[in-house]
Amino acid sequence: QVELVESGGGLVQIGGSLRLSCAASGRTFNPSVMGWFRQSPGKEQEHLAGINWRAGGASYADAVRGRATISRDSAKNMLYLEINDLRLEDTAVYYCAIYPNGVSRGPGYWGQGTQVTVSS
Which of 48, 53, 104, 112 is deepest in the core (most CB within 10 A)? Predict the structure, then answer.
């Protein structure tokens, strides 16, 4: 039983930057892979980034590669996503998630999400 709470979203202008945070809590928290995905109304979930919790190795989707950095603080059970050079198409609700079987198999648990709105 794990709770994930995202924060850090908001209204930003094109070209701006944002740092999203995810706090995990529960009686036990020992994930293998965690990551971020986003979703806009009427659209499918779009995976963005994943990170191996123990080793720290990261992977990125084409949509954010070169603009995003995923990181974690294992001692604090915190996950982060920094995105630079924000674009209109980055507007979405962003979710942090636990990937029980790796990124390729999709998320198993996620939080309520945090809204990111990019404006011109």
Answer: 48
pLDDT in tens, the chain (120 residues): 789 999 999 999 999 999 999 999 987 778 899 999 999 988 999 999 999 999 999 999 999 999 999 999 999 999 999 999 999 999 999 999 999 999 999 999 999 999 999 999
* Contact status, residue 58 vs residue 51, Cβ threshold 8 Å: yes
Q: How many CB atoms lie within 10 A of CB 97?
A: 25
Strand order in the sheet with 78-83: 2-7, 18-26, 78-83, 68-73
First to last CA, the chain: 41
Confirm if 116 and 10 have CB atoms less than 8 A apart: yes
